[in-house]
Amino acid sequence: MQRLKTRPQFQAVLAGSTLARTDHFALHCCALQSVPQAPQGDAAPLFPVDGVWLGAMLPKRWAKRAVTRNAIKRQIYQVSTEMESSLAPRAHVVRLRAGFDRTRFISASSDALKAAVRTELRQLFDRAQAAAAARTGSPRVQA
Question: What is the CATH number of the domain that holds 11?
């Protein structure tokens, strides 16, 4: 799995479709072939390698503390590595779209917060897999 690193990569994926949503996350994706191969004035392709690309986007608006953003990012990359076989060879961005309740998760990097994030991320990837299966008309594969 490759990680998104540049602003044009993130912009290209966010301009694509939204595969799935949960209460706190949204999963955006775009086909690698539908993206222009080079931004203006740059000779390098935007996605030089075919396969699964993944990025995480956590605005300070929804996770104010850096320790919380870093903990959530680690959970995103860990769960996506576990679910990599169910992801299509496309570029994906997991975007935090709502904050976690600070009265419920008092510590910025608690085990309870990490478990809640992992559970919701698995739901997000399961919904994305179900949506992809519905589009192609193929039965859902149980992992």
Answer: 3.30.230.10
